[in-house]
Structure formats: C-alpha cells, structure tokens
Design a protein that fits this description.
Pfam families: FAA_hydrolase (PF01557). This is Fumarylacetoacetate hydrolase family protein. Keywords: Hydrolase, Metal-binding. The protein has a single domain, classed as Fumarylacetoacetate hydrolase, domain 2 (Alpha-Beta Complex). Helix content is 15%, strand content 32%. The chain is built from 5 helices and 18 strands. It is globular. The mean pLDDT is 94.
C-alpha cells in the first residue's frame, strides 16, 4: 500500500522501436553544440566548455502534435539527437562513456525564442523559453544493438516540405562521450537520464498548421504537426 498523500503522477516514458517504453528521469540539453548554429545565435564557434540547461521529463511528447504555446509569437524548431542512458555514475571517463548508452532517437527542442531572449537580457534562467508543456517532441528510441553509436550522418528538418535545417552529426563540437563525461563531473547520472545533443543552423519560427519533419540518418523520421 502506498504512503503517498496524493496520487503519484504517471511515469514519463518514451516509446521504443521494440514496442516497450523507456522511463525518463532527467533531461539535459546542451547549448550551441554546432558551430554554424553558434554563429547564427551571435556567438563565437570556437570550442569552449559546454553549457547545459534542463527540460522537464513531462516536456517529452511522442504524440506527433505540438500545441503552439501561449505568451509567445516567435516559437522556433531545433532538431536534435537524443541520447538515452541505461546506466550512470560520477566522473565517467570519456573512454567508457558510450557503455552507458541504451539508445538514440530524434527529438525537437521547441523554443519560445522571444521569451528566451528576454530572459537572457535580464540574466535570468531559460526555463520559461525552453521547459514549457510539450516542448520536446520525440520519436521512438532505437537501441544501440540496432543502430550502433551514430557519430556521423545527416541531421535535417523540413517545414511544409521546405528544408530549414541541415548538418551532420560529425559537426557536433562536443561529441556524445564528451557530453556524458562532462555532465558526470557535475551531476550524478542515472538510468533514465536523456541528453539532447544540440542543433545545426537554420532554426526558425513555426506557426499553427505547419508540418515539421525531423530526420537523422539511421534513426528515421519524426513528423510533428503544429496545432
């Protein structure tokens, strides 16, 4: 019998290609991890220590629909590689970091850019622009046994059939092992943690009625309609 004083919330999960679900504990997102995107956001693309922000597990959404959020008139798409961890730890070496990965997927980091910009100017956290409801559309995760560890391959996004974003996973400034090792120096990583690996250049606004198709070679397509 539970000792909870209110009903326990349902666990947050991502579907997998095998039909099961992956339970999510935390969501870490790296910022400006593609040089061209760093430039388009007004920053120096030279390699510097990475920085991360967080979304909430409840922000992940596999419905195929993205409700346009309130209090914003400038909502942007960002296609990203999602890395799902099966184990964790502290001070994980780069050389063994990939041993902790369960699988990979395609995700979108939807951003209320106007609210994020206002928060930046005021020196405030980004959650209001990044961690709103259903702000992380996701596709089914694919296990390492099926797809290996993708370290190169096309990553792209179209809106209504027009190409908006395009790059290659090998253009990531901080690779997957680097991100895992760095995060483990500051946080206790654990099974169920996921990392969103940054976006290539070409981010832009969407509006209700748009259809976004995000693609990463070997991981399939993620189709999301803005409603």
């Amino acid at each position: 019998m539970s000792n909870h004083v209110i009903p326990a919330p349902a666990p947050c999960v991502i579907p997998t290609s095998g039909g099961g679900t992956f339970p999510v504990r935390r969501v870490y997102c790296i910022g400006r991890n593609f040089a061209a995107h760093a430039v388009e956001m007004g920053h120096d693309p030279d390699r510097e220590p990475p920085f991360f922000f967080q979304k909430n597990p409840e922000n992940l959404d596999a419905s195929g629909e993205f409700p346009y959020p309130p209090h914003s008139t400038d909502v942007h798409h960002e296609v990203e590689l999602l890395i799902a961890l099966k184990t964790g730890g502290r001070q994980i070496p780069v050389s063994t970091a990939l041993d902790h990965v369960w699988g990979y997927g395609v995700a979108l980091d939807m951003t209320r850019r106007d609210l994020q910009g206002a928060a930046k100017k005021a020196g405030r956290p980004w959650e209001i622009g990044k961690a709103f409801e259903r702000s992380a559309p996701v596709g089914a995760l694919r296990p390492v046994a099926e797809v290996g560890h993708p370290d190169h391959g096309r990553i792209a996004l179209t809106v209504n059939g027009a190409l908006r974003q395009e790059g290659d996973l090998n253009q990531m400034i901080w690779k997957v092992p680097d991100m895992i090792a760095y995060l483990s120096d500051y946080f206790d990583l654990a099974p169920g943690d996921v990392i969103m690996g940054g976006t290539p250049s070409g981010v832009g606004a969407v509006q209700a009625g748009d259809e976004m198709v995000a693609r990463i070679d070997g991981l399939g397509d993620l189709t999301v309609r803005v409603i």
